[in-house]
Structures are given as structure tokens and as C-alpha cells.
Amino acid sequence: MATSEAIAETSEDHAEHDHPAFLAHHFDTPQQQFDSGKLGMWLFLVTEILFFSGLFTAYIVYRYLHPEIFIYAHQYLDTTLGAFNTCVLIFSSLTMAWAVRCAQLNQRVGLIVCLTITLVCAGLFLVVKYFEYTHKFHEGLYWAGWFDPHSSHGHEDDDILTGEGHHDEHAEDSHASEGHEEGSSEESASGESETLEGGGNPPPPTPPEEDMVSAVAPPTGFRAPLTPLELQMQSIQGNEAEVGEIPVPAALSFGEEKEETDETDIPRNAGIFFSIYYCMTGLHAIHIVAGMIAIGWLLVRSCMGHFNEQYFGPVDYVGLYWHLVDLIWIYLFPLLYLIR
Amino acid sequence: MAVEVQPTPGASPAPDSPLFQSPENYLTHPSTSIGSWLFTLDHKRIGIMYLVSILLSFLIGGLLALAVRLELMWPGQTIMSAETYNHVFTLHGAIMTFLFIIPSVPASIGNFVLPIMLGAKDLAFPRMNLGSYYLWVLGAVFFVGSMLMNGLDTGWTFYTPYSTTTSSSVISALLGVFVLGFSSIFTGLNFIVTIHTMRPAGMTWFRMPLLLWALYATAIIQILATPVIGITGLLLIAERLLQIGIFDPALGGDPVMFQHFFWFYSHPAVYIMILPAMGIISELVSIHSHKPIFGYRFIAFSSVALALLGFLVWGHHMFTSGQSPVSAIVFSALTFSVSIPSAIKVFNWLATLWRGSISFTTPMCYALSFIFLFTVGGLTGLFLGTLATDVHLHDTYFVVAHFHYVMMGGTAVAFVGGIFHWWPKMTGRMYNEWLGRLSALIVLIGFNLTFFPQFLLGTHGMPRRYFDYEPEYAFLHFLSSVGAFTLGFGLLLAAIALILSLFNGKRAPANPWGAVSLEWQCASPPPYYNFKRAPVASFPYDFTRVEYDPPSQSYIVRAEEKGAATADH
Question: How many CA atoms lie within 13 A of B530 on its CB side?
Fold first, then answer.
């Protein structure tokens, strides 16, 4: 890196000491510039944490007030995919940290490779997230205002729905085909998401006689949360008797008028969980996108050979940011997917 | 990557003497073209652009305030319909809060002065600084856009559920708030980093001018509180667009949660507004009474204490919103604790004045107004922090009067005083002192005439934000409106004094006030690079080292005697 290349500044003061090209005119030493950048990045991360804090607070408050919603609704999230994404992000953090080390050691190829892997991991995360989202949309698992899961008749939701235009087709679908048929047709329609999601079958399309099982068991919370797969297996084994014995605590049904004819047992306002889910993961995904842009910028600059032992600040800063985005996901995953 | 500065080949070397106008001064130096201003990375120019823009929004907000007062001058409809009134008072509040007071002192005066006070060439992140200015502009565009489209009638507080149901342009206004929030965060982040990493030789933490302590404390709040309003705004936008239900009880949400989120930012934001003003007053009181500030460390720490305590008291806005009695009591007690650091400051300012050699310059007149008005504003806050009285006074004109005493009588007055104080440095011109003093007097009288009757109105039960009122309130409302126009006239005089100085003002010396802090040791206006060589800082309130130099009509700061360096005071 050409340190002799004087920057286009005229102040004689600068000419006096060695002022490398990467050093901004108002800093005295590279160390000062690096420290400033690093402190700035840390402060920015603090603002990021507080930015998310509002959502975490909303999560805490609503989970405390309505645990039944969270226990019920989380089973719609695909733990396998969530865990896969967690691994992807943790791995990308490793490559990012490695990239910082490569930059510090002036290993250009290593830096480019590590950044590329990080970028690919970020993209993979988003792809998985995309399939998770679209799958939920297919099932009508929107945020509170549009929430209309197909396995239900939506008796609770109809009066509070305001975004009719958007989901009507799904709703009619579900009403027309009464649950299980609709479920299977839905599955085949969204074949690509199905294949990608592998083992994690979503719970709603269960045959009607098993609806009781899947609907009653999770809210009790006396047992380890059943994955959708386990639920199906359990119901296939036909242990309705056992399930029937488990009483539904009154508190958990929370003022809901249960209709005998309707077998679904959706806690009131279950959609609020999905509101929080979409807000948190959506905001996180936006941060992933921002991180990808930043990493892309680093990649361009490292291809141009901008970084060396003396000047690796930007790689370090973006690395810090990336670790934070990763860390937030590490909190989101158990909070949203692994609820007991 | 190196910061690109407009290259200036062939610039003539100029003496960096404090006594002479520098031909390299920042107003003309790189170039005087519009482009060189719009894309400048120089903190001084950005500060000036901020100053102009902020004063412009102050003007708009002020005109809206006059419209409100004109409407309320007589009972019944005077100049506008009730619906228009809702829009006008909302926009007055929103513009004054988000466009004017929050950025006022840090972004304009702070931006200009902070690096020079540190003897630095610029802030740590000049491009981020320029970015913050353009974010401010973008936010202002959103605000003006919402004003022109459907208006905004929620009050500046955007309380749900009304803000989720009204047809006025809440979304664009919230986007404006969101963008302005980032502008504010970037300013604060820049300040903290600059103060940490760019202090000159000799400037320990306890040799920083108190304005820097205040700006530092402010920046802490900007960084910690502002993101919360950002996410709150986003959630409210999502609520309106998608019905996510977080704030909607019909969908399982909670509208009071919005109030918690909102005030978690907006109460600390009150300290974003007042702390820099307090910093200015600490400078003005000491410099213009030519006496070292009394209790330097107490003032410094009280700024930080206010910044931290400010985070713990948001619930006092919600005593009547249905929070639990226990939390109300806790919030009330914490609210009282805020008065301790505030009182420390006021007492220290008074002790500084005591036996000082007070010059009744314009900045000093504004500073004295501030101390009076802020004290009234602070003391009336105690009534609102007390649970029993707050139930009576909540949402009345008492609240309106209280926060105007603190925000307008405090921050805005200090801001104007600060502009007068640093005007010679910014522009290189002296203004007409008599006109300045007269403006300070009229502002003081007009202010009290406007807002003191509102305390009475509030205790008599006049609710805030009402379009109309019972005839028995008419006299006090009339007084208040007369006061508002007096106040407007006083501020107009101040503006005239400053604008006139640009055309026929005397050339300002480097150090017209006899101050010791570093910004007065470079030329007025400062050269492009502020200091050729980083100066060595000493205690900024040691006025024994200042002496008047008749030929240059400026004060000169003698170099500190070696060995006898004033240790931390």
C-alpha cells in the first residue's frame, strides 16, 4: 500500500509527518483513526441493541401476559430450519472473524475467500428465511391483523380482520375444503418449499380426527414441546385416550368461547405472536441485508487491495456488526422457536 | 479511506495568529461556491448549514405558534376551524420538538464549536456529520410533506389508538421522526467518539469546557434513547399499514405500551434538549462574569447524572394512563431525584455570578433570563411529579406552561444566547449590543406574559389542546396571546441585530469576551483547519491568564507558566 502517496491536501502540517493515504486528514495517527472507528462502531452497535430492545420488550410483555399464545403458536415455526439457520449464521461469524484476521495479516486471498463465504452464508440464511415466510403465508399465518390460519374456521378472527382483500382467497379456500383436503392441496401447490424444508412438517394439515390431539396437547405445556412431526406420530399411534385425559386449564383458553362444533383451539389473539415474529425476524433480516451490502463493499475493496496490516479497520468494524447481527439471531432462535 | 477534502493547491500560507483575520477562514477558504458548501465535510460549515436550517424551522414553528395563540386570543372561532387548529398545534409541536429543539444546540453550535474547543481539525467522522445533516433535511421534507398532504392532527406525541385511526398523514410524519432520529444518533455518536479520541495535549476530562461535558452527556442520551423512538415509529407505521396489532387491543395489543415506548425516548429527549442549553449557560455565566465557574466537577457530573436519571422517569407522563400505583410512586420518587442535579447547576451558576465582574453583554442577558425561566420551569415540574397534584394538573395548561418554561424559556433562550456568544466567532462580526440587550429584555417580558398566565389557566382547569374555552378563561388567554406576539417581536429584534451585523458589524477580534477555552484562541472566523498545530489546553475557566490587548481590541491568553500548571480544579 502506497504510504508515500500524499493525499491531496495542502496543509504543510500534514507533509511534516508521514501521513499515509488511508489516514484521514484530521487524524494524527493511524492508531487514533482506528480507535475512533472502533469506538464509533461499538456505539453504533449499542444503538442497534436498543433498536431491537423495543421488540424484545414487546415480546417479554406479551409472553408474560399471554403465555398460552406463545406456547400454542410457536409450534408453527420450523425448528429444523431455525436451527439450520442458526448454524449457518454461527459459521458465517467464524468466517467473518477469520476474514478480519486475514486482513490483519495482509492475506488478500484468504480475506476474499472468507468474505465470500460469509456473504454466501448470509444469502443462504435469507433463502431459508424466505421459504419459512412463504410457507407461513400459504397457511394464512400472518401477523395479527391478517391472521387466518387455514385449519381454523376463523370464528374469532372474522370480526377483527381488516385486511380482507389480501387473504380472502385463502380463507375461502379453507372454508371450502374444510381443513385436511385444503391442507394437502396446499402442500402440493407449494412443493418447492416442501422439499427444501425437509423433515420439519408443519402441523396444521392434520386429519380432522386428530385435530384434537394437535390442538389440545401443546397448550397444556406439561410436556416437552412436541415438534409437528412428533405430534403427527403420536396421533397416528392413536393414543387419543391419553390426550383426552389432559385437562385444558381454564386460564389457558383465556376467555375464549369454545365452540363444540369447532375443533380448533386457537388461543385468542394468537396472531400477536406472529406480529412479533415477523417484526423481529423481519428487522433482523433487514440487518442481514445491510450486512451483505457492507460485506460486498469490503469484498470490492479487498479485491482492490485496500487492506493491509496497518489499515484493516473497515473489515474489523463490519465484522463487529456482523457478530452482533448473529448474536441477535442467537437470541431470537430460542425465544421464538424453542418455547416450552 | 481518506476523507476527501476539497483540494486547495496554491493557497497562500497565512499566519495562524489569533490577532488577525485569517484569509484562510472557513467561510471563504476552500471556495465560496454553493457546491463547496453543500458537499463540505468541514464541521464549521455543516454547523452553519444546520444553524440556518434549524432557525428556519424555528421560524415556521414560531409562526404556527402565533397562529395558535391568535386563534385562542378570543373564545370561539377566530381565524381557523377546530380541525385546522388540531393540525396547527400538532405541527407546531412536532416541528419545534423534532426539527428545532432536539438538534438545536448540539447540531449547530455544538458542531461548530466542539472540535475547535478540542483543538481538533474536525469531528471524528466528517462524512457521517454531513450525512446527519442531510438526514435532517430528509426528515424535514417528510414533515413538510405530511403538512402539505393531509396535515397531522395527533399531537406531536402520536398516541395510539388515535394515531392508528386518524386519516391524517401519520406515516410520513413518523418516517420523518425515524430519519431525524438517525440524524440525531449520528451527531451524538460523532461527539462521543471525538471527545474520547481527539482531545489535545493537556486536556484531561476535567479540563474540558463544561459545554463539552453537556454535549457528551447529551450524546449518551441520543445514542441510548433515540433508537427506541425509531423502532416505536416503525411499529406504529406497521400498525397502520398492516395491522400488526402490537398497539391495538382488538388484536391483543396494548395502546399504553405505545406510551411507554414513546416516553422511554421522549422523556430522555427532554434532556437532549435541555442539557446542551445548560452547557451553554455554564460557559456564558462564567465567561461573562470573568470568574471561574463555581463547582466545575459538580456541574460536569450533574450533566452525566441528568443523562442517566432521565432514563428512569418516563412513567411520570403516564400517571393517569393506568399504570400500577407502585410504579407510579417509584416514577414519582425518581422524578424528584432529577431535581437534585438540576438544582446543583442552578446553585453553581448563581455562585459563579456572586462577586463576579459581570458584563451585561447580550449573551449574559440571555443567560440570566435562562436562569430565571429555567428555575420557574423546574420548580413547577415538582407539582407535576407529585402524584396527587398531577391528577389535577394533568393535560392542562399548567403542563403546557411548565414545558414551555423549560424548553422555550430554557433551551431556546440559551440557544439564542449561545448564538450571540459565538456569533463573532462564526461570522467574524460584532453585533449591536444595545439591540441585542433590548431583544433579551423583550423576550423575557414577552415570554413571561405568554406562559405565566397559562399556569393560572391550568390550575383553573383549562385543558390543553382545546380549540375553544369558557368565557372565564378569556382574559388570561388574551394576555397569553399578547405575550406571544411580544415574544415573537423580541426574537425578531434578535434576528435583526444579528442580520444587521453581517452587513455593518465591526470586525470581531479573536477573543472579544475574554474567554480561555480554545475556540477563542484562533482567528474569528476560524481558519479552515482551526489550528495549524494542536494547541495545548489548560483549565478553561482560569481567567487570571487573560489580559486585554488594546491594539487588537482583543483579549489575549497568556501561555501557562510551566510548573505552575493548574491541576484539576
Answer: 24
Number of structural domains chain A divides into: 2
Does residue A127 lie in a domain region?
A: yes
Q: Which of residues 182-241 of A touch B (CB under 8 A)?
A: none
Q: Are residues A146 and A264 in the same domain?
A: yes
Q: Is B351 exposed, middle or buried (0-12, 13-18, 19+ CB in 10 A)?
A: middle
DSSP label at B12? Answer: P
pTM of the model: 0.83
Tens digit of each residue's pLDDT, chain B (569 residues): 333 333 333 333 333 444 445 667 888 887 888 888 999 999 999 999 999 999 999 999 999 999 999 999 999 999 999 999 999 999 999 999 999 999 999 999 999 999 999 999 999 999 999 999 999 999 999 988 888 888 889 989 999 888 988 888 899 999 999 999 999 999 999 999 999 999 988 899 999 999 999 999 999 999 999 999 999 999 999 999 988 888 988 888 888 999 999 999 999 999 999 999 999 999 999 999 999 999 999 999 999 999 999 999 999 999 988 888 999 999 999 999 999 999 999 999 999 999 999 999 999 999 999 999 999 999 999 999 999 999 999 999 999 999 999 999 999 999 999 999 999 999 999 999 999 999 999 999 999 999 999 999 999 999 999 999 999 999 999 999 999 999 999 999 999 999 999 999 999 999 999 999 999 988 889 998 888 877 888 889 989 888 888 888 888 887 765 444 444 44
How close B160 gets to chain A, by Cα (Å)?
15
Are B244 and B238 spatial neighbours (Cβ–Cβ below 8 Å)?
A: yes
**Whole-number Å distance between alpha carbons of B160 and B256:** 8
φ, ψ for residue B345, nearest 5 deg: -65, -50
Domain B40-557 has CATH 1.20.210.10: yes
Taking CB atoms and an 8 Å limit, are A25 and B3 in contact across chains?
yes
By C-alpha distance, which of B75, B71, B68, B89 is closest to B473? Answer: B75
Is residue A275 within 8 A of residue A336, CB to CB? The reply is no
ipTM of the complex: 0.89
What is the distance in angstroms between the Cα of A304 and the nearest Cα belonging to chain B? 12
Q: Is residue A10 part of a domain?
A: no
Q: Is residue A34 part of a domain?
A: no
Q: Chain A: nearest CA to B117, how far in angstroms?
A: 15
In a domain, A19, yes or no: no
CB contacts of B122 in chain A (<8 Å) are 25-26
Chain A residue with CA closest to B225: the answer is A50
Domain extent at residue A63: 46-136+273-337
Q: Which of A272, A299, A319 is the last residue of a domain?
A: A272
Instruction: Kindly state whether B241 is in contact with chain A, defined as any CB-CB distance less than 8 angstroms.
Output: no
Q: Which residues in A195-217 are b (16+ Cβ under 10 Å) and which e? A: eebeebbbbbbbeeebbbbbbbb
